[in-house]
Amino acid sequence: EIVLTQSPGTLSLSPGQRATLSCRASQSVRSNSLAWYQQKAGQAPRVLIYGASSRATGIPDRFSGSGSGTDFSLIISRLEPEDLAVYYCQQTGVSPFSFGPGTKVDIK
Amino acid sequence: EVQLVESGGGLVQTGRSLRLSCVGSGFKFDEYGMHWVRQAAGKGPEWVSGISWNSDYIGYADSLKGRFTISRDNAKNSVYLQMNSLRPEDTALYYCAKAGGLGSFFNWFDPWGQGTLVTVSS
Question: Which residues from B are below 8 Å from A33, CB to CB?
Answer without folding.
Answer: 106-107
